[in-house]
Protein backbone atom coordinates (compact mmCIF):
# COMPACT_ATOMS: atom_id res chain seq x y z
CA UNK A 1 0.00 0.00 0.00
CA UNK A 2 1.27 3.46 -0.94
CA UNK A 3 0.72 4.93 2.52
CA UNK A 4 2.70 2.10 4.15
CA UNK A 5 5.79 2.86 2.12
CA UNK A 6 5.37 6.59 2.84
CA UNK A 7 5.07 5.88 6.54
CA UNK A 8 8.30 3.90 6.33
CA UNK A 9 10.05 6.77 4.53
CA UNK A 10 8.80 9.21 7.14
CA UNK A 11 9.84 6.92 10.01
CA UNK A 12 13.32 6.44 8.60
CA UNK A 13 14.13 9.98 7.45
CA UNK A 14 11.84 12.72 8.71
CA UNK A 15 12.72 14.41 11.99
CA UNK A 16 9.43 15.68 13.46
CA UNK A 17 9.14 18.87 15.52
CA UNK A 18 8.73 18.56 19.29
CA UNK A 19 8.52 14.77 19.19
CA UNK A 20 10.24 11.88 20.88
CA UNK A 21 12.51 10.81 18.01
CA UNK A 22 12.63 7.21 19.30
CA UNK A 23 8.90 7.28 20.00
CA UNK A 24 8.28 8.38 16.43
CA UNK A 25 10.34 5.48 15.11
CA UNK A 26 7.94 3.21 16.99
CA UNK A 27 4.61 4.85 16.30
CA UNK A 28 5.16 6.31 12.84
CA UNK A 29 3.08 9.07 11.32
CA UNK A 30 -0.57 9.60 10.46
CA UNK A 31 -0.50 11.00 6.96
CA UNK A 32 -2.98 13.69 6.02
CA UNK A 33 -3.98 13.72 2.39
CA UNK A 34 -6.34 16.62 1.77
CA UNK A 35 -8.48 19.23 3.48
CA UNK A 36 -11.42 21.52 2.80
CA UNK A 37 -13.06 24.06 5.08
CA UNK A 38 -12.66 22.70 8.61
CA UNK A 39 -12.32 19.05 7.56
CA UNK A 40 -9.10 17.10 7.00
CA UNK A 41 -8.92 13.72 5.29
CA UNK A 42 -6.23 11.20 6.12
CA UNK A 43 -4.46 8.83 3.75
CA UNK A 44 -7.04 6.10 4.45
CA UNK A 45 -9.89 8.44 3.55
CA UNK A 46 -11.11 9.09 7.12
CA UNK A 47 -12.56 12.56 7.53
CA UNK A 48 -11.98 14.51 10.72
CA UNK A 49 -13.04 17.92 11.99
CA UNK A 50 -9.92 19.95 12.58
CA UNK A 51 -10.61 21.47 15.98
CA UNK A 52 -7.09 22.86 16.13
CA UNK A 53 -6.70 24.47 12.66
CA UNK A 54 -3.51 22.54 12.01
CA UNK A 55 -1.30 24.11 14.67
CA UNK A 56 -3.66 26.99 15.55
CA UNK A 57 -2.86 28.54 12.22
CA UNK A 58 -5.37 27.71 9.46
CA UNK A 59 -7.70 30.44 10.69
CA UNK A 60 -9.32 30.95 7.27
CA UNK A 61 -9.96 27.24 6.76
CA UNK A 62 -8.61 24.94 4.08
CA UNK A 63 -9.10 25.12 0.34
CA UNK A 64 -9.98 28.81 0.01
CA UNK A 65 -9.92 29.36 -3.75
CA UNK A 66 -9.10 33.07 -3.53
CA UNK A 67 -5.95 32.28 -1.56
CA UNK A 68 -4.90 29.54 -3.94
CA UNK A 69 -5.44 31.87 -6.89
CA UNK A 70 -3.47 34.69 -5.27
CA UNK A 71 -0.51 32.36 -4.65
CA UNK A 72 -0.66 30.92 -8.17
CA UNK A 73 -0.90 34.35 -9.78
CA UNK A 74 2.03 35.66 -7.74
CA UNK A 75 4.19 32.60 -8.44
CA UNK A 76 3.60 33.08 -12.14
CA UNK A 77 4.26 36.81 -12.12
CA UNK A 78 7.10 37.16 -9.63
CA UNK A 79 7.87 34.16 -7.41
CA UNK A 80 10.69 35.86 -5.57
CA UNK A 81 12.05 39.32 -4.93
CA UNK A 82 14.70 40.21 -2.40
CA UNK A 83 14.27 43.13 -0.07
CA UNK A 84 18.03 43.70 -0.14
CA UNK A 85 19.69 46.28 -2.45
CA UNK A 86 16.68 48.58 -2.15
CA UNK A 87 14.48 46.13 -4.09
CA UNK A 88 10.99 45.00 -3.20
CA UNK A 89 7.68 43.73 -4.51
CA UNK A 90 4.14 45.01 -4.89
CA UNK A 91 2.42 42.52 -2.53
CA UNK A 92 4.98 43.10 0.22
CA UNK A 93 4.52 46.87 0.09
CA UNK A 94 0.73 46.54 0.00
CA UNK A 95 0.72 44.09 2.89
CA UNK A 96 2.98 46.20 5.11
CA UNK A 97 0.79 49.26 4.55
CA UNK A 98 -2.41 47.33 5.18
CA UNK A 99 -1.09 45.74 8.36
CA UNK A 100 0.17 49.09 9.65
CA UNK A 101 -3.29 50.50 9.00
CA UNK A 102 -5.03 47.67 10.89
CA UNK A 103 -2.56 47.32 13.78
CA UNK A 104 -3.21 48.98 17.14
CA UNK A 105 -1.85 52.48 17.82
CA UNK A 106 1.44 53.48 16.26
CA UNK A 107 2.64 49.98 15.27
CA UNK A 108 3.33 51.43 11.85
CA UNK A 109 6.38 49.46 10.71
CA UNK A 110 6.49 45.80 9.75
CA UNK A 111 9.46 43.46 9.43
CA UNK A 112 8.52 40.15 7.77
CA UNK A 113 9.91 36.81 8.88
CA UNK A 114 9.26 33.17 7.97
CA UNK A 115 7.30 32.28 11.08
CA UNK A 116 6.91 32.96 14.78
CA UNK A 117 10.26 31.81 16.16
CA UNK A 118 12.28 34.08 13.93
CA UNK A 119 9.80 36.90 14.60
CA UNK A 120 10.53 36.57 18.34
CA UNK A 121 14.24 36.23 17.62
CA UNK A 122 14.10 39.41 15.53
CA UNK A 123 12.50 41.33 18.40
CA UNK A 124 15.34 40.30 20.68
CA UNK A 125 17.82 41.76 18.21
CA UNK A 126 15.71 44.93 17.80
CA UNK A 127 15.36 45.33 21.58
CA UNK A 128 19.11 45.17 22.04
CA UNK A 129 19.78 47.52 19.14
CA UNK A 130 17.18 49.93 20.51
CA UNK A 131 18.85 50.21 23.93
CA UNK A 132 22.28 50.58 22.34
CA UNK A 133 20.87 53.35 20.16
CA UNK A 134 19.49 55.08 23.25
CA UNK A 135 22.90 54.85 24.93
CA UNK A 136 21.65 52.36 27.53
CA UNK A 137 23.28 49.04 26.57
CA UNK A 138 23.25 47.95 30.22
CA UNK A 139 19.50 47.44 29.86
CA UNK A 140 20.08 43.86 28.78
CA UNK A 141 17.87 41.66 30.97
CA UNK A 142 14.71 40.07 29.55
CA UNK A 143 11.63 38.90 31.45
CA UNK A 144 8.87 36.58 30.26
CA UNK A 145 6.15 34.50 31.92
CA UNK A 146 6.14 30.92 33.21
CA UNK A 147 4.16 28.56 30.95
CA UNK A 148 4.86 30.99 28.11
CA UNK A 149 5.84 29.95 24.61
CA UNK A 150 7.92 32.16 22.36
CA UNK A 151 9.28 29.74 19.81
CA UNK A 152 12.17 27.44 19.39
CA UNK A 153 15.17 29.53 18.37
CA UNK A 154 18.17 29.45 20.70
CA UNK A 155 17.09 32.72 22.26
CA UNK A 156 13.32 32.36 21.92
CA UNK A 157 13.40 28.91 23.51
CA UNK A 158 14.86 30.65 26.56
CA UNK A 159 11.96 33.09 26.70
CA UNK A 160 9.75 30.03 26.30
CA UNK A 161 9.17 28.54 29.74
CA UNK A 162 8.47 24.91 28.94
CA UNK A 163 11.01 22.45 30.40
CA UNK A 164 11.54 20.28 27.31
CA UNK A 165 12.65 23.35 25.35
CA UNK A 166 15.42 24.05 27.88
CA UNK A 167 16.83 20.75 29.09
CA UNK A 168 20.01 19.74 27.31
CA UNK A 169 20.16 22.75 24.98
CA UNK A 170 22.51 25.06 26.95
CA UNK A 171 20.42 28.15 26.22
CA UNK A 172 21.61 31.67 27.09
CA UNK A 173 19.38 31.76 30.16
CA UNK A 174 21.54 34.00 32.33
CA UNK A 175 19.83 37.13 30.99
CA UNK A 176 16.35 35.62 30.57
CA UNK A 177 14.06 35.62 33.60
CA UNK A 178 10.49 34.61 34.37
CA UNK A 179 7.60 35.66 36.54
CA UNK A 180 4.70 33.36 37.44
CA UNK A 181 1.80 32.86 35.08
CA UNK A 182 -1.63 34.31 35.84
CA UNK A 183 -3.02 30.70 35.43
CA UNK A 184 -6.30 31.42 37.24
CA UNK A 185 -7.37 27.80 37.82
CA UNK A 186 -4.23 26.98 39.78
CA UNK A 187 -3.07 30.36 41.05
CA UNK A 188 -1.82 30.31 44.67
CA UNK A 189 -3.59 33.64 45.29
CA UNK A 190 -6.93 32.14 44.21
CA UNK A 191 -9.24 32.93 41.34
CA UNK A 192 -10.14 36.55 42.12
CA UNK A 193 -9.08 38.57 39.04
CA UNK A 194 -7.94 41.63 41.01
CA UNK A 195 -5.84 39.50 43.36
CA UNK A 196 -4.19 37.78 40.38
CA UNK A 197 -3.43 41.11 38.68
CA UNK A 198 -2.04 42.59 41.90
CA UNK A 199 0.15 39.53 42.48
CA UNK A 200 1.54 39.62 38.91
CA UNK A 201 2.25 43.36 39.08
CA UNK A 202 4.01 42.92 42.44
CA UNK A 203 6.06 40.00 41.12
CA UNK A 204 7.10 41.88 37.99
CA UNK A 205 8.19 44.88 40.06
CA UNK A 206 10.05 42.64 42.50
CA UNK A 207 11.83 40.79 39.70
CA UNK A 208 12.88 44.10 38.12
CA UNK A 209 14.26 45.26 41.49
CA UNK A 210 16.05 41.95 41.95
CA UNK A 211 17.75 42.41 38.56
CA UNK A 212 19.13 45.80 39.61
CA UNK A 213 16.16 47.97 38.76
CA UNK A 214 14.62 49.25 35.55
CA UNK A 215 18.05 50.48 34.45
CA UNK A 216 18.95 46.84 33.78
CA UNK A 217 15.74 45.52 32.24
CA UNK A 218 15.30 45.68 28.48
CA UNK A 219 11.96 44.06 27.75
CA UNK A 220 8.99 42.10 29.03
CA UNK A 221 7.35 39.47 26.80
CA UNK A 222 3.74 38.28 27.07
CA UNK A 223 1.23 36.30 25.08
CA UNK A 224 -2.23 37.92 25.37
CA UNK A 225 -3.45 34.35 25.99
CA UNK A 226 -0.80 31.75 26.81
CA UNK A 227 -1.23 29.08 24.16
CA UNK A 228 1.22 26.21 24.39
CA UNK A 229 1.26 26.49 28.19
CA UNK A 230 -2.34 25.19 28.15
CA UNK A 231 -4.53 28.05 26.82
CA UNK A 232 -4.26 30.20 29.94
CA UNK A 233 -6.48 33.26 29.72
CA UNK A 234 -5.44 36.20 31.92
CA UNK A 235 -8.14 38.00 33.87
CA UNK A 236 -9.50 41.12 32.14
CA UNK A 237 -7.15 44.01 32.91
CA UNK A 238 -4.04 41.84 33.38
CA UNK A 239 -2.40 42.76 30.07
CA UNK A 240 -3.17 46.45 30.56
CA UNK A 241 -1.74 46.37 34.09
CA UNK A 242 1.50 44.73 32.96
CA UNK A 243 1.76 47.15 30.07
CA UNK A 244 1.36 50.08 32.49
CA UNK A 245 4.25 48.86 34.66
CA UNK A 246 6.51 48.64 31.61
CA UNK A 247 5.52 52.09 30.41
CA UNK A 248 6.13 53.61 33.86
CA UNK A 249 9.57 52.01 34.12
CA UNK A 250 10.66 52.50 30.49
CA UNK A 251 10.84 48.78 29.73
CA UNK A 252 9.82 47.61 26.26
CA UNK A 253 6.54 45.66 26.23
CA UNK A 254 6.45 42.93 23.57
CA UNK A 255 3.14 41.21 22.80
CA UNK A 256 3.56 37.81 21.18
CA UNK A 257 0.39 37.43 19.11
CA UNK A 258 1.62 34.48 17.04
CA UNK A 259 -1.44 32.46 18.13
CA UNK A 260 -3.84 35.19 19.21
CA UNK A 261 -3.44 37.39 16.12
CA UNK A 262 -5.67 37.40 13.06
CA UNK A 263 -9.07 36.77 14.50
CA UNK A 264 -8.39 33.96 16.93
CA UNK A 265 -9.88 35.84 19.89
CA UNK A 266 -12.47 37.84 17.95
CA UNK A 267 -10.63 40.98 16.89
CA UNK A 268 -7.75 41.12 14.45
CA UNK A 269 -5.34 41.32 17.42
CA UNK A 270 -6.01 40.28 21.02
CA UNK A 271 -4.26 43.38 22.42
CA UNK A 272 -7.18 45.35 21.07
CA UNK A 273 -9.46 43.62 23.57
CA UNK A 274 -7.86 45.79 26.28
CA UNK A 275 -6.85 48.78 24.19
CA UNK A 276 -3.19 47.92 24.73
CA UNK A 277 -0.57 49.13 22.28
CA UNK A 278 2.69 47.22 22.69
CA UNK A 279 6.10 48.58 21.72
CA UNK A 280 6.51 45.59 19.42
CA UNK A 281 4.18 42.78 18.42
CA UNK A 282 5.01 39.42 16.88
CA UNK A 283 2.62 37.53 14.60
CA UNK A 284 2.69 34.55 12.22
CA UNK A 285 0.27 31.59 11.81
CA UNK A 286 -3.05 33.30 10.93
CA UNK A 287 -1.20 35.96 8.93
CA UNK A 288 -1.14 33.55 5.98
CA UNK A 289 -3.53 31.07 7.58
CA UNK A 290 -0.81 28.44 7.29
CA UNK A 291 -1.00 28.28 3.47
CA UNK A 292 2.64 29.40 3.21
CA UNK A 293 5.17 30.39 5.88
CA UNK A 294 5.30 33.99 7.04
CA UNK A 295 5.60 35.97 10.25
CA UNK A 296 5.63 39.68 10.98
CA UNK A 297 7.16 41.90 13.65
CA UNK A 298 5.29 45.16 14.17
CA UNK A 299 7.42 48.05 15.48
CA UNK A 300 5.99 51.18 17.05
CA UNK A 301 7.09 54.56 15.73
CA UNK A 302 9.41 55.24 18.64
CA UNK A 303 11.15 51.85 18.43
CA UNK A 304 11.52 52.17 14.67
CA UNK A 305 12.76 55.78 14.82
CA UNK A 306 15.25 55.06 17.60
CA UNK A 307 16.76 52.17 15.67
CA UNK A 308 16.70 54.11 12.38
CA UNK A 309 18.38 57.17 13.91
CA UNK A 310 20.84 54.98 15.81
CA UNK A 311 21.98 53.32 12.59
CA UNK A 312 21.93 56.52 10.55
CA UNK A 313 23.44 55.79 7.13
CA UNK A 314 24.69 52.35 8.24
CA UNK A 315 22.73 49.19 7.53
CA UNK A 316 20.77 47.62 10.40
CA UNK A 317 22.36 44.20 10.03
CA UNK A 318 19.33 41.98 10.34
CA UNK A 319 17.59 40.23 7.47
CA UNK A 320 16.63 36.98 5.79
CA UNK A 321 16.66 35.83 2.17
CA UNK A 322 12.93 35.20 2.45
CA UNK A 323 11.88 38.35 4.37
CA UNK A 324 8.71 39.77 2.77
CA UNK A 325 8.47 36.88 0.32
CA UNK A 326 6.09 38.04 -2.45
CA UNK A 327 4.10 34.78 -2.61
CA UNK A 328 3.58 34.79 1.16
CA UNK A 329 2.61 38.47 1.00
CA UNK A 330 0.09 37.80 -1.78
CA UNK A 331 -1.38 34.97 0.28
CA UNK A 332 -1.58 37.17 3.38
CA UNK A 333 -3.43 39.86 1.43
CA UNK A 334 -5.96 37.31 0.17
CA UNK A 335 -6.37 35.89 3.67
CA UNK A 336 -6.91 39.39 5.11
CA UNK A 337 -9.67 39.92 2.53
CA UNK A 338 -11.38 36.80 3.84
CA UNK A 339 -11.08 37.91 7.47
CA UNK A 340 -12.49 41.33 6.68
CA UNK A 341 -15.22 40.03 4.36
CA UNK A 342 -16.94 38.02 7.08
CA UNK A 343 -14.60 35.48 8.67
CA UNK A 344 -13.80 37.62 11.71
CA UNK A 345 -17.51 38.08 12.28
CA UNK A 346 -18.22 34.38 11.80
CA UNK A 347 -15.36 33.54 14.15
CA UNK A 348 -16.87 35.76 16.84
CA UNK A 349 -20.24 34.03 16.55
CA UNK A 350 -18.75 30.54 16.39
CA UNK A 351 -16.40 31.35 19.26
CA UNK A 352 -19.36 32.22 21.48
CA UNK A 353 -21.05 28.96 20.44
CA UNK A 354 -17.90 26.95 21.10
CA UNK A 355 -17.49 28.45 24.58
CA UNK A 356 -21.15 27.83 25.41
CA UNK A 357 -20.85 24.26 24.17
CA UNK A 358 -17.71 23.57 26.17
CA UNK A 359 -19.26 25.20 29.25
CA UNK A 360 -22.03 22.66 28.79
CA UNK A 361 -19.46 19.94 29.48
CA UNK A 362 -18.68 21.39 32.93
CA UNK A 363 -20.93 18.82 34.59
CA UNK A 364 -18.81 15.96 33.22
CA UNK A 365 -16.95 14.21 36.07
CA UNK A 366 -13.57 14.86 34.40
CA UNK A 367 -13.96 18.55 33.54
CA UNK A 368 -12.32 20.82 36.11
CA UNK A 369 -12.06 24.03 34.12
CA UNK A 370 -13.36 25.50 30.88
CA UNK A 371 -11.63 28.62 29.57
CA UNK A 372 -11.08 30.57 26.40
CA UNK A 373 -11.87 33.61 24.33
CA UNK A 374 -13.20 33.59 20.80
CA UNK A 375 -12.05 30.57 18.83
CA UNK A 376 -9.33 29.71 21.35
CA UNK A 377 -10.41 27.50 24.21
CA UNK A 378 -9.47 24.64 26.50
CA UNK A 379 -10.89 22.28 29.04
CA UNK A 380 -8.74 21.01 31.87
CA UNK A 381 -9.35 17.45 33.03
CA UNK A 382 -9.06 16.40 36.65
CA UNK A 383 -9.85 13.26 38.59
CA UNK A 384 -11.11 15.21 41.63
CA UNK A 385 -12.80 18.56 41.06
CA UNK A 386 -12.45 19.83 44.64
CA UNK A 387 -8.77 18.96 44.92
CA UNK A 388 -8.16 19.84 41.22
CA UNK A 389 -6.13 16.64 40.90
CA UNK A 390 -4.59 16.41 37.41
CA UNK A 391 -4.99 13.27 35.34
CA UNK A 392 -2.25 10.79 36.32
CA UNK A 393 0.77 10.56 34.02
CA UNK A 394 -0.06 6.85 33.68
CA UNK A 395 -3.20 7.84 31.76
CA UNK A 396 -0.91 9.43 29.12
CA UNK A 397 -3.40 12.18 28.20
CA UNK A 398 -1.27 13.61 25.38
CA UNK A 399 -1.51 10.40 23.36
CA UNK A 400 -4.58 8.59 24.64
CA UNK A 401 -6.95 11.58 24.63
CA UNK A 402 -5.62 12.60 21.22
CA UNK A 403 -6.13 9.05 19.88
CA UNK A 404 -9.69 8.79 21.23
CA UNK A 405 -10.65 12.15 19.77
CA UNK A 406 -9.07 11.11 16.47
CA UNK A 407 -11.11 7.91 16.37
CA UNK A 408 -14.19 10.03 17.08
CA UNK A 409 -13.41 12.14 14.01
CA UNK A 410 -11.95 15.14 15.82
CA UNK A 411 -8.48 16.68 15.88
CA UNK A 412 -7.66 18.51 19.12
CA UNK A 413 -4.49 19.41 20.95
CA UNK A 414 -4.12 17.07 23.91
CA UNK A 415 -1.59 18.49 26.37
CA UNK A 416 0.44 16.23 28.62
CA UNK A 417 -1.05 17.82 31.76
CA UNK A 418 -4.56 16.72 30.71
CA UNK A 419 -5.72 19.86 28.96
CA UNK A 420 -7.63 19.67 25.67
CA UNK A 421 -7.03 22.69 23.44
CA UNK A 422 -9.30 24.04 20.70
CA UNK A 423 -8.55 26.53 17.94
CA UNK A 424 -10.90 25.69 15.07
CA UNK A 425 -10.86 27.53 11.75
CA UNK A 426 -12.95 30.71 11.84
CA UNK A 427 -15.01 29.40 8.90
CA UNK A 428 -16.66 26.67 11.01
CA UNK A 429 -20.42 26.29 10.72
CA UNK A 430 -22.73 25.94 13.70
CA UNK A 431 -23.09 22.23 12.94
CA UNK A 432 -19.31 21.81 12.95
CA UNK A 433 -18.94 23.60 16.30
CA UNK A 434 -21.68 21.42 17.76
CA UNK A 435 -19.95 18.32 16.40
CA UNK A 436 -16.66 19.40 18.02
CA UNK A 437 -18.44 19.62 21.37
CA UNK A 438 -20.30 16.32 20.94
CA UNK A 439 -17.18 14.44 19.86
CA UNK A 440 -15.42 15.92 22.86
CA UNK A 441 -18.14 14.58 25.16
CA UNK A 442 -17.73 11.13 23.65
CA UNK A 443 -13.96 11.40 24.10
CA UNK A 444 -14.43 12.36 27.76
CA UNK A 445 -16.79 9.44 28.36
CA UNK A 446 -14.22 7.07 26.85
CA UNK A 447 -11.46 8.66 28.96
CA UNK A 448 -13.57 8.03 32.05
CA UNK A 449 -13.42 4.31 31.18
CA UNK A 450 -9.61 4.35 30.99
CA UNK A 451 -8.43 1.98 33.79
CA UNK A 452 -5.64 4.39 34.77
CA UNK A 453 -8.13 7.23 35.13
CA UNK A 454 -10.57 5.03 37.06
CA UNK A 455 -7.79 3.94 39.40
CA UNK A 456 -6.95 7.55 40.16
CA UNK A 457 -10.61 8.37 40.87
CA UNK A 458 -11.12 5.62 43.43
N1 LIG B 1 5.20 32.53 19.76
C1 LIG B 1 4.06 31.91 20.10
C2 LIG B 1 3.14 32.58 21.08
C3 LIG B 1 3.73 30.67 19.56
O1 LIG B 1 2.62 30.04 19.94
C4 LIG B 1 4.60 30.10 18.60
C5 LIG B 1 4.28 28.80 18.00
O2 LIG B 1 3.33 28.12 18.34
C6 LIG B 1 5.77 30.77 18.28
C7 LIG B 1 6.05 31.98 18.88
C8 LIG B 1 6.74 30.17 17.31
O3 LIG B 1 6.20 30.18 16.03
P1 LIG B 1 6.74 29.18 14.90
O4 LIG B 1 6.36 27.81 15.32
O5 LIG B 1 6.04 29.67 13.66
O6 LIG B 1 8.20 29.37 14.80
UniProtKB/TrEMBL annotation:
Entry-linked InterPro entries: Aminotrans_3, Aminotrans_3_PPA_site, PyrdxlP-dep_Trfase, PyrdxlP-dep_Trfase_major, PyrdxlP-dep_Trfase_small
GO MF annotation list: transaminase activity
Superkingdom, natural source: Bacteria
NCBIfam families: PRK05965.1
Record-stated family: Belongs to the class-III pyridoxal-phosphate-dependent aminotransferase family.
Cofactors (names): pyridoxal 5'-phosphate
Keyword Secreted set for record: no
SUPFAM superfamilies, sorted: PLP-dependent transferases
Coiled-coil ranges (or none): none
Name of protein: Aspartate aminotransferase family protein
Pfam families (UniProt xref): Aminotran_3
Keywords: Aminotransferase, Pyridoxal phosphate, Transferase
Origin organism lineage: Bacteria, Pseudomonadati, Pseudomonadota, Alphaproteobacteria, Rhodobacterales
KW Transferase (keyword) present: yes
